[in-house]
Amino acid sequence: MTNVDASKIIKLTINGAGLEALAGPHHTLLELLRNNGYVEVKCGCEKGDCGACAVLLDGEAVDACLTLAWIADGGDVWTVKGIGTESKPHPLQKAFIEEGSVQCGYCIPGVIVAAKALLDRNPDPSDADIRVALSGNLCRCTGYTRIFSAIHKAAEEMRREALTHA
Amino acid sequence: MLETLAGGAPNVQLWQVGKPLIRKDAPNKAYGNTLYAGDLMMPGMLHAKVFRADRPSAKIVRVDATKARALAGVRCVLTAWDLPDRLVVTDIPGQTGGKTKNTAQPILAKERVRFFNEPIALIAADTEEIAAAARDLIEVEYAPLPGVFDPVEALRSGAPQVDGDANVVAAYRIRKGDVARGFAEADVIVENRFRTQVQEQAFLEPEAGLAWMDDKDVLNIKVSTQVVEHFRAIADAIGIPHNRVHVEAMYVGGGFGGKEGLTIEMMLALLAYHTRRPVRLILTREESFVNHGNRHPFTLEYRTGVKKDGKITALEVRLTADSGAYSKLSPYVLLYATVGAPGPYRVDNLKVDSVVAATNNLSTCAFRGFGTMQACVAYEGQMDEIAKRLGMSPLELRRRNFIQTGDKNATGQTIESAVWSEQCAVQALKALGEPARGDDVIKIGRGLACYQQSYGRIRWFKDSSEAWVGIEVDGTVIVRCAVTDIGAGQSSSLAQIAAEVLGVPMEKVVTYFGDCTLNPLAGTSSASRALYMSGNATKLAATKVRANLLEWAAKHFAVSPDELQLADFRVFVVDDPSRGMPIDELARECAADGVHRHHLAMFRAPTSEGLDPETGQGDVFPDFTFGAHACEVAVDTETGEVTVLKSVGAHDVGQSLNPQSVAGQIEGSALMGQGFALCEEIVQHNGVLVTPSFSEYLIPTAEDVPDTKAIILESRSGLGPFGAKGMGEPAFAPVAASIANAVADALGVRVFELPITPERVINALVRKEANTANAPASQSA
User: Fold this and answer.
1) In this prediction, what percent of chain A has a pLDDT beyond 90?
2) Nearest Cα to B519, choosing from B770, B274, B249, B300?
3) Fewest beta carbons within 10 Å, which of B156, B403, B407, B725?
């Protein structure tokens, strides 16, 4: 049971906006996010096997279910909703939609986060790079092939954008 | 990669059907906007937990929930003693409301535990943490009761009785032609025994839902399910009228059959009914593994007689399956395996005996492929073993035996649609391209598997689906259909069909789906039937609306209705397209003139009255999908590790509604089938699950993906809309069999038991070496 005395206020920036919330020492970042309305972060296993809860924490993709809320204190968190929106889609989201990479969609918020982390550090990933980057994200519907092609397509689009803006 | 090979001419000019349009559900899923059942919250909501048995077989002496009830924040604890005689009976899920015989199952265990983690008590509390703490305070006193964990042992006299009549949950027989004469005519007889394992659906979204009683005394349940028609079974079990249970399926995070039976609906319903508070239940992954029925493990004994030219003269099959503790859909899974036993081959002399037995193992139920895919592992393994004995190519042997349009199948049902098994097999093999190169250690092998998989439900279920289509005065279209959307694009396909018929772009259509009360009932998203049934109902309804609009327009333009076309958001005269008007204007004019702009239509599948119990002859399914899967593997003969290099599915889908979605089914099936062939297995030690999470139960990851290709063939001969055939299960049916055949090709020896683990590969190689060493000695003897 929550021992309120042992809880403390955790301050986070989530998708660019501040959040202050009470969390106990045993609470995970996943619980904190979902209890505060960030339900786009999905829960598939609660033990770091499936990657459905992946978020960017200070630029790195982490499983929110394995990250204690206290460890994330002061952190900069980005979820799939912060990465892009319908009015301002991220190239990854556009490519996932166009390539037919989405079936049931439950794994997709975590997969897009993992792909974003990859492209942020490696703008031109090989097939093998993509496979390693996604090896912690389980998808049961798609067989991954359209996820791979979407990531390649988004990477190409982002490289083109970078050239245009350079 | 995707390739489409068009077959016959299209039935009609298609504007939108057959094009890879963006699925309507995709954008919001990619932006993170889509809400799944576990994402919902309500004011005053309670949190539920389930107390489960810690052993697979025991007498329950006493359940004491006193301490749990006394805990602050606990609002309700229910045990079987609070629910006198409440049973849940497996409804034949769908339109008929029929009950499956001998399937009554206690909602909560009372006198006896029959399987590991069987639910014993339900808790609702103010927070999830309090509910979990209360669960730990429940005390149960058990007395030993021996269990049985093997279906063959369960069928022996004196075995512990679990369920059914002497543990027989169901049994079937097929007697066709003269098997004794067929074997007498055979030049070669090949006999083998195959075994398949328990597989977990492993959908990414664990079971979840939210239930509440409303001010109309209606019990509302928003839940992750494939079947909203369970509202009847829920109402019957609680003892309230059917019209007071309102089930709504949210977008489902994967089903694959695992959310076809009741999952957590009863638990949610009981807690909400007893507390009159909103109650949410979300299962953990570990609970999900024990909560829904998994894939039936089968032992498949095949004896096949063939002539030297490869023609099959006789086939004798014995199938034994394990239903686990309760019947659920086991009788039907066994029926599918029985009917599918000979595969896509013409076998005039056939004998099949099958049985599914109750044990104290975890329950088994529906899973993509539903008995048929297990049979495929055996009949396709058998075909390759026969080809090897005859020195014939696997493709040539199959070619000489493929069932053809007009032939009668195992139960004497005439195949009426196109059978493109050979075309699919040729295309799949061709797409493998140049073979990889092996060496002394790494052996390369190729495998082919063909199949016959039904789509649509068993004919004596008298299946039907209804849909309502209407056009608004702004030209937008509404489709209402209670089909559940389990991730294959079920609701989007209906929008595509309505858009096609009414000549509006797909973005002008919204499908309202998954609601058992506010939508016309559609049946289930199972049995590869959603597109076939609900697609036809939607097409019928839209066609009637179209006719009404055209009748008005014909008068307006002083032409006959068949001189008009609806396309690109306009109605126009075909011979003079300048004469016409936009569809919103047409809809407004029709509204002003009182023309019906909406229609409710029912589509009914062909029916039959069942099988002859002695011969197993009769019409079982509406129709069948045919196709092939081919793959190339590399086997490391030192470690036993198998790597799938290339994987190609080629299927005659009749007509693809959306080729991108069809390819998605084929590609996803390729990897799920690979998991079944190589690494996935639910392991139980005397009924206790020892692979309870994704750390122990391994499904393929991104690093295991082979070079995958989807080839779509279109005979336009199916019973679905525009000639479509069902595709969700067919794409999966042959995958594991093709991998098993490829491994046998690489090694020169077969692994008869799935999954093909490194240990089994090494054992097979040892067996092969021993046979080779013994061979000269036996020859000289």
Assistant:
1) 95
2) B249
3) B156
